[in-house]
Design brief:
Layout: H1 16-23, E1 28-31, E2 38-39, E3 57-60, E4 64-73, E5 87-94, E6 101-106, E7 119-128, E8 131-138
Antiparallel strand pairs: 1-2, 1-3, 4-5, 4-7, 5-6, 7-8
Length: about 140
């Protein structure tokens, strides 16, 4: 019996630059053309300045941040993750802007000793040829 594959992202007109950057192992976040603030995910309206014409452009960011919260997943809700349980999801505040947060897997594993504020860096999981998903790893010097 084969294990189902992980789901792949399905880029649309708004997310295609994000996924193209991820395939290159680069984290690129949408920045509003009106107020110059980053937004995850970008929408039709900038949540910071309220413009309905945000003209989002994707810019590379450092991928450095700190853990704000986390959870251990013990039961996969999608079959493609069944062989990965248990795994950690972390809520990370990126260094580029206060309050700029994204969620991803922590690749260091469920036995990692986490605490609020622990530094992490972006890492990428190659899930298919030409397809990578941003994740996180403990920053140098921080391990379990």
């Amino acid at each position: 019996m084969t294990t189902p594959a992980r789901p792949r992202p399905v880029p649309d007109a708004h997310s295609a630059p994000y996924w193209a950057a991820a395939a290159r192992h680069e984290l690129a976040i949408a920045r509003c053309g009106g107020c110059d603030r980053f937004e995850i995910p970008p929408g039709a309206i900038c949540s910071h300045c309220g413009t309905t014409d945000p003209g989002f452009r994707f810019e590379p960011v450092s991928g450095l941040g700190v853990v704000r919260s986390w959870t251990v997943i013990h039961r996969a809700s999608l079959l493609g993750f069944a062989r990965d349980v248990p795994y950690l999801l972390v809520d990370v505040e990126l260094a580029e802007q206060p309050g700029l947060r994204m969620i991803g897997r922590l690749l260091d594993g469920p036995d990692s000793e986490l605490r609020e504020g622990i530094p992490v860096r972006v890492a990428f999981e190659d899930i298919a040829p030409g397809t990578a998903v941003p994740a996180f790893a403990l920053a140098a010097g921080e391990s379990s």
